[in-house]
Amino acid sequence: MIEVKGLNRRYGATRALIDLSFQVAQGEVVGFLGPNGAGKSTTMKILTCSLAPTSGSASVAGFDILDDPISVRRNIGFMPEQVALYSDQSVLEFLGFVAKLKGVDRGRLTSHVDGLVDQTGLGEVRHKMVGNLSHGFRKRVGLAQALVSDPKVLILDEPTSGLDPHQIVEIRRLIKGFRGDRTVLLSSHILSEVSAICERVLILDKGRLVGEESALGLAQADPSRAGQGTSTVVLSWDGDRNAVAEALARVAGVDEVVVTSEGAEVIIAGNPVEVRPRLVESVLQAGGQLQNIQDKGPSLEDLFLRLTGGDTDQAENDQLSKDRPGRDS
After folding, report:
1. 90-98: average pLDDT
2. Are 278 and 233 in contact (CB under 8 A)?
């Protein structure tokens, strides 16, 4: 469904993409992982025909991005990180407007938009003005507009950035539900985000594809855990500490629960991608209000530098040098 061959993109003297090649099969959910500036957003802009490559080729659903960009756009639903929305329309008015632009049959426009509202959890705000929505609901509206044309391919740029833990779980569940039906390419710089949603991960660094890994393999890539077959998730919540901790301990795949002053550290012996959603559900079922959930381990920067043969201390020193003002400042 997505095929990229030898893609290059320059911004002046800067090479944003360098001989990038990859494929995404029908029904796959694939992630782009890499630090800021790795080339993720540039690749997505090229695939959605909003930016031309300097050289190389790419096709979506069998249509070339340069030869037939209209057909490419008809088959793609795109959700940029910062979604452009009309703040003076209600959610229903905005989605109806997008549906008309996308050529949805007027006879089924109302039922189609209602279905999108239900699918993306916008029911309680359907009549609210978009400009008055919270960041989380604006994200959902952005996802709904990407789904309006019932596209074969979804391209999502940082779809859960800025969301609270409950909203993240809901969006993750929705995206995972597309597996086997729609082809999804999702960018993120958050390791746990990609490993929780995607089946396969493409790792970018300075415009180059430097690695390809299954999500499970990436989640277990921490060298400090080599041979242990476990991972650790840190949770915090409001509510009865003991009741929630006991509920967490009963979750299938959990090896141990260590209660801390802020919540708990959960040692997972099973597949972390499958266990994390069950941890969230157990907190809620035990009457807790989840405040945070995150992997315990190296930062993405540390892990990424290890995967690409970089040096953490040198990278930190380089960053300090960049941040330090000159003598003449």
Report:
1. 96
2. no
Question: Which among 239, 195, 202, 196 is positioned nearest to 217, based on CA atoms?
Answer: 195
**For the chain, what is the mean pLDDT?**
84
- Which residue type is seen at 235? L
Domain residue extents for the chain: 2-219, 223-296
- Do residues 265 and 234 lie in contact, with contact meaning Cβ atoms separated by under 8 Å? yes
Separation of alpha carbons 120 and 232, rounded Å: 30
Across 202-225, average pLDDT:
71
Using 50, 70 and 90 to split pLDDT, how confident is the model at 93?
very high
* Whole-number pLDDT of residue 217: 62
What contacts 183, CB < 8 A, 6 or more positions away? 1, 2, 24, 25, 26, 27, 28, 152, 153, 154
> In this structure, are residues 244 and 287 in contact, taking their beta carbons and an 8 Å threshold?
yes
- Indicate the Cα dihedral angle 213, 25, 22, 155, nearest 10°: -90
CATH 3.40.50.300 assigned to domain 2-219? The reply is yes
- CA-closest candidate to residue 202, choices 55, 24, 66, 327: 24
**How far is C-alpha 247 from the geometric centre of its chain's CA atoms?**
28
Global pTM?
0.69
User: What pLDDT sits at residue 270?
Assistant: 67
Q: What is the CATH number of domain 223-296?
A: 3.30.70.100
- pLDDT for position 309: 55
The yes-or-no verdict on residue 131 having pLDDT over 90 is yes
DSSP string, 153-217: EEEEESTTTT--HHHHHHHHHHHHTTTTTSEEEEEES-HHHHHHH-SEEEEEETTEEEEEEEHHH
Amino acid, res. 124: E
